[in-house]
Amino acid sequence: MIFKATEENIFKASELIKQGECVAFPTETVYGLGANAFNSLACVKIFEIKQRPFFDPLIVHVAEFENNEMARKLAENFWPGPMTLILKKNQNIPDIVTAGLETVAVRMPDHPVARELIKKSGVPIAAPSANLFGSLSPTKAEHVLKQLGDKVKIILDAGPSRFGVESTIIDLSRGKPLILRFGGLTAEEIEKVIGRVEFSQNQQNNIVAPGQLLKHYSPHTKLLIVDSAKSAMRDFKGKRVGLLSLKKPKNKKDFVAVQILSETGDLKEAAANLFESLDRFDVMNLDLILVEPVPEIGLGRAIMDRLRRASRN
Ligand code: AMP
Ligand code: MG
């Protein structure tokens, strides 16, 4: 059920976390499905509810943090916020959370409700996005309800997510920092603080970055990335095609529906609207969604990453 994220309801949710239950809660990236990170049985429930494979590790959300030099520098600059750090783990974190890896993913979210929930629970909260595995990430409480239904007792509602794409994941566990996933914090911002950073292209479903699966974040409707939607339409005459457009398109008439990510083409606004726009297309009974590439700068990288995975069969 959806509950407004009032002081009282955050308290109720924190009691559930303490009892080993899962709750859905807002963060500035997307809505999360959380459980006590120290409690294996509670974390198993996350996998069951999401139908998530056990090889896909969770991010642990904390309200406070101490660690090594590089991690501290990044934490000082970007936490609380949409950045996840992969660090060597210690014994307190059960294997279920990390999929048996020697490393753990840690994030300090910026959303006041998420922070309050973690503080009141008194434990770090392991939480992936609150959606079914592989499906669109939820940027509103309604999206969580639609996908997870009554499997979660409390869905804390605090309106739409500010960023709308997941956190940026930086691996600090092997000497050189490596961006494993583009997200709400841009590569440009990171490089200003720690200099040049490499990014893993993760073009394969490999173990190095578990969960960075090629097919992910997918709408039910087939999605195709094309250089020109107008020319692509020649191949899809008579089909019900939707256009996902970064800004106001010149030509709308070939398409059954058009979703504009940002009237002005602003990448930040576009990221915030991405999953919801795909979700809207999904109820329109379309044959296909077409989308043209967005510039791969700033949040454009995170957007293109999600679109590429969404377009996989
Ligand atoms: P989600 O919160 O749904 O975006 O899922 C968390 C993602 O974090 C996983 O799918 C992994 O890609 C990533 N992740 C979590 N822990 C690790 C780790 N120890 N090493 C590398 N990636 C990780
Ligand atoms: Mg997810």
Automatic annotation (TrEMBL):
Entry-linked Pfam families: Sua5_C, Sua5_yciO_yrdC
Binding sites annotated in the UniProt record for L-threonine: T29, H61, R107, A127, S167
Gene3D superfamilies reported in the protein's UniProt record: DHBP synthase, Threonylcarbamoyl-AMP synthase, C-terminal domain
UniProt domain YrdC-like: residue ranges: 7-185
Record's catalysed reaction(s): L-threonine + hydrogencarbonate + ATP = L-threonylcarbamoyladenylate + diphosphate + H2O
Superkingdom of origin: Bacteria
Positions of ATP binding: R52, T103, S129, S137, R181, Y217
UniProt key word Transferase: yes
Function of the molecule: Required for the formation of a threonylcarbamoyl group on adenosine at position 37 (t(6)A37) in tRNAs that read codons beginning with adenine.
Protein name: Threonylcarbamoyl-AMP synthase
Source organism of the structure: Candidatus Brennerbacteria bacterium RIFOXYD1_FULL_41_16
